[in-house]
Amino acid sequence: MNREIHERAERLILQQQVEGLSPADRGWLDQHLESCPRCAGVAAATGQALQSLRAVSVPLPPALAARAQLRVYLRARQMRESGPAGWAPWLWCGLSWALGLASAPYVWAGFRWLGENAGLPGPVWKMGVALWWVMPALLTVAVLVIERRGREESGERYDDVR
Amino acid sequence: MAATTLFFSAPMAEDRKVLARGLRRRDPELLDGLIEQYQYRLFRYLLYLTASPETAEDLFQETWIRVLDRGHQYDGRARFETWLFAIARHLVVDLHRRKTPQSLEALTEEDRGEPPELAATDPSPLELFAQHQSEESVRLSLERLPAVYREVLLLRFQEELALEEIGGVLDAPLSTVKSRLYRGLQALRELLERRGM
Lengths: 162, 197
Fold this sequence. Notes:
The structure holds two protein chains of two kinds.
Chain A: H1 3-18, H2 23-35, H3 37-55, H4 64-118, H5 122-159
Chain B: H1 2-9, H2 13-25, H3 28-50, H4 53-69, H5 80-99, H6 125-144, H7 147-158, H8 163-170, H9 174-194
């Protein structure tokens, strides 16, 4: 028998285990294995290798599932607690923008009236209007920063639970 | 509770939808049950990939945290274990990228810790000895295989996943899956033959 035949047989032996064979290939392989002790040995060794692989067992660390369940429980609780609070600053921010836009003409008129009555130069009362607009945004940023720090600290605590 | 019972009694396609809904709700009972049910298979998969029990255990926990965080992404069309293994694999790849700027391809024996100890179950001393020798040979042979081959051999011949499902876990084309399986199986056979098995 030439080398190509053995190579085909070895390829089919692997294919049989990995993805199966067509009836024609299976017939050819069975016939070849009956007449070729070398390839029959390869087929037997492949079957043995798979049998050995399937027999390998792995010991589980103690309380593996319980520790994972605890971490998942803590994480779920953390998510529940931080979920609504995470939306609150954005809600307040949106309300602030809406009120700011609605009241802008009145704020401008009010500051101008105050500035003119107090005899202030134009840039001063205009600066007052600018600060009036910037303050809500600054407060929102402060709230977000404080909240993020709180989350990071609690995240570190959860990482310690192992 | 009803969803949990249904899923664990008959994991069919419809039940996968129920499972998906439970994951979206972050149902604590469902998650506890899944952790119990898949602990062996997930830990074994992670151990095959990392070859380190400590790393495998850390990633085991991280995997379940991801399942909780991203449960809404499971749509129930694929089997749950396929999705679970894909999450676990991403975590392993991320870990190795952080440790070394390489992919899983480079996860070979020089980067491994202690190999896992294998459990013996046969009560007969003679058989126990023979089995120990046999499992030791398989363990040592597996250690010498690159992780990418160990991984596909496990998914195909221990997890009994279909080739397409393995492709889904690996995010790789079918041709890559087949090629790794052929090479891995051939390499394992040759290694075991050299050990007289």
